[in-house]
Write a structure and sequence with these properties.
CBS-domain; inorganic pyrophosphatase (n-terminal core); alpha/beta; six-stranded parallel beta sheet; metal ion binding; manganese; inorganic diphosphate phosphatase activity; Udp-n-acetylmuramoylalanyl-d-glutamate--2,6- Diaminopimelate Ligase, Chain: A, domain 1; elongated; CBS domain; six-stranded mixed beta sheet; 22% strand
């Protein structure tokens, strides 16, 4: 999602108002700061909300499972080198950028290894001093650059795989062992230089700033040997050649990796348990993205979030406790969310959050796009049951009329069609039906779950009462709540049928033994049901 973005998100099991209001508020805020505000959701889109999105040609808010900080929220060191780069160049880069580890990739940028300070030290201080120094195929110019040497004779542009000999004395022994692919390091000894060229050496490295005579140059050209001259001594030339090996030959492959979507807590555990004290961030097919270290993970990182249509931890997206809440816009009862610093908090007792967002457009003298106006209208019509619920206020009616004019929609025709799209009850399994619009409350020390199912008659609840009660008992147990209530609200009958699951004493004291219980005039979970039953729970 990127850094410096602000997530606007509704509650879990988002209803149409939650989906539409975040889209509307993101559009309003992005008018001033384009692209900064991201409309999001932390649940599936309901059939009703999907119908609204399709009707007005809008995309669903992006799905965000958690706002816990992830690797994507921190800056990454994106430096890396290819596996064919000489080790000495890797070391130089690490020194320049003060890096303890350097990721190594192949030609497709796939992570293949890591060069560490320890690996470099091990390459320089060889484990076996008797081991024959050798050279892998490389351009002569690369070797000259590594040795800070000038090319006196260029006979071969690329050197092959061969051994490296330092010729100090016992020249005849060296000559007896050499092959046409080998390289010789020699000092200020012209007879030895000529003898080595005559033996068919691939390249001659003249060390210690020794002069290169014309006879040596002519012989090298005749025999096809390359000649390099450097001011380094023979020992230094040998060590530099050992560091000319490609990164792939000294890198380690047992490297810890994380992904952009991994939480920072997980990344910290990986880094702290790694011998490298770092981890590589990879994407699809192992593509290298960046490097995280203990230093980068020490930063205090929080996702910036604006909450809409709720103000309770139990209904909020996972990880909200670790987020930076900037603003809350809601129309429900006050919940238990607390913040460490002051935030904007608008709680207006209107029928929907979409009404509040619509009024913010009006106050800012900004007109929403027709698509967004249609979505906000959908949120209002859904949450007020086309202005039938007791929560409907004059502000909802005014906002709906205003939005309908922009969207070119007749609320009296569109509203009932929208509601019917959310009432295809037979198509859903009972567990999904009872959990797609549920909210958790904590009332006087008891954990309460209240589900609401909108219907066009009482028939569905009456004919499936046994199945509903059985499923409620199961859900109450699996979710670990004290009581689980389900309201089957008849939109056109101005009443709800109530089912409940809880301990025997609680059900008895609430007078809910015979279910369903018809609750006349109860249409709103927040305004009609919770206030009434909240008082009853106070007395339990």
């Amino acid at each position: 999602m990127g850094q410096n973005k602000i997530i606007i998100i509704g509650h879990k099991q988002p209803d149409t108002d939650s989906i539409c209001s975040v889209i509307g508020y993101a559009e309003l805020r992005n008018r001033a700061e384009p692209g900064k505000y991201i409309p999001a959701r932390c649940g599936e889109v309901s059939p009703e909300a999907r119908f609204a999105l399709e009707t007005f040609g809008a995309e669903a808010p992006v799905y965000v499972a958690s706002v816990e900080p992830t690797v994507s929220d921190i800056p990454l060191d994106t430096r890396r080198v290819r596996q064919d780069v000489p080790t000495v160049d890797v070391a130089a880069l690490m020194d320049t950028y003060d890096m303890r580890n350097m990721p190594i990739t192949d030609g497709d940028e796939t992570l293949v290894g890591l060069v560490s300070e320890y690996g470099l030290a091990r390459a320089y201080v060889r484990k076996n001093p008797r081991e024959q120094l050798s050279l892998i195929p490389m351009p002569l110019e690369t070797l000259a650059r590594i040795l800070d040497a000038r090319i006196v004779v260029l006979s071969r542009e690329t050197l092959g795989e061969g051994r490296v000999y330092t010729v100090i004395d016992a020249l005849h022994v060296t000559l007896s062992r050499m092959t046409p692919d080998d390289i010789a390091i020699v000092g200020d000894n012209e007879p030895a230089q000529l003898a080595l060229i005559s033996a068919g050496v691939a390249a001659l490295i003249i060390a210690e700033g020794a002069p290169v005579g014309e006879r040596v140059i002519d012989a090298a050209r005749t025999r096809g040997a390359s000649v390099l001259a450097t001011t380094l001594d023979a020992f230094s030339v040998g060590k530099m050649i050992s560091l000319s090996l490609p990164a792939s030959m000294i890198m380690e492959t047992d490297i810890p990796t994380v992904r952009m979507e991994d939480s920072l807590e997980y990344a910290k555990s990986i880094v702290s348990n790694s011998k490298f004290r770092t981890a590589c961030v990879v994407g699809e097919e192992g593509r290298h993205i960046g490097l995280v270290s203990r230093t980068t993970l020490m930063q205090d990182v929080q996702k910036s979030v604006i909450l809409l249509d709720h103000n309770e931890y139990s209904q909020a997206v996972d990880g909200i406790e670790q987020a930076d809440i900037l603003e809350i816009i809601d129309h429900h009862r006050l919940g238990a969310i607390s913040t460490l610093k002051p935030v904007r908090f608008l709680n207006d007792p209107v029928g929907s959050t979409s009404t509040i967002v619509a009024n913010k457009f009006i106050e800012a003298c900004i007109e929403p796009t027709p698509s967004t106006a249609g979505l906000l209208l959908s949120g209002i019509l859904s949450d007020t049951m086309v202005m039938k619920l007791s929560t409907t206020t004059p502000a909802d009616i005014r906002a709906a009329d205003h939005l309908a004019g922009i969207a070119g929609v007749d609320p009296a025709e569109y509203g009932p069609e929208l509601i019917r799209k959310g009432m295809d009850l037979d198509a859903l399994p009972k567990d999904e039906l009872l959990t797609r619009d549920m909210k958790r409350y904590n009332l006087f020390g008891r954990s309460i779950m209240v589900s609401q199912v909108m219907t066009s008659s009482f028939e569905f609840a009456e004919t499936r009462a046994d199945e509903i009660r059985a499923e409620l008992d199961h859900l109450r147990t699996t979710m670990g709540v004290d009581c689980f209530f389900a309201l089957f609200t008849n939109v056109f009958g101005n009443a709800s049928d109530l089912f409940a699951a809880g301990d025997e004493a609680c059900i008895s004291k609430l007078d809910l033994r015979d279910q369903p219980v018809r609750l006349e005039g109860v249409m709103s979970r927040k305004k009609d049901f919770i206030p009434k039953f909240g008082q009853m729970f106070r007395q339990l």
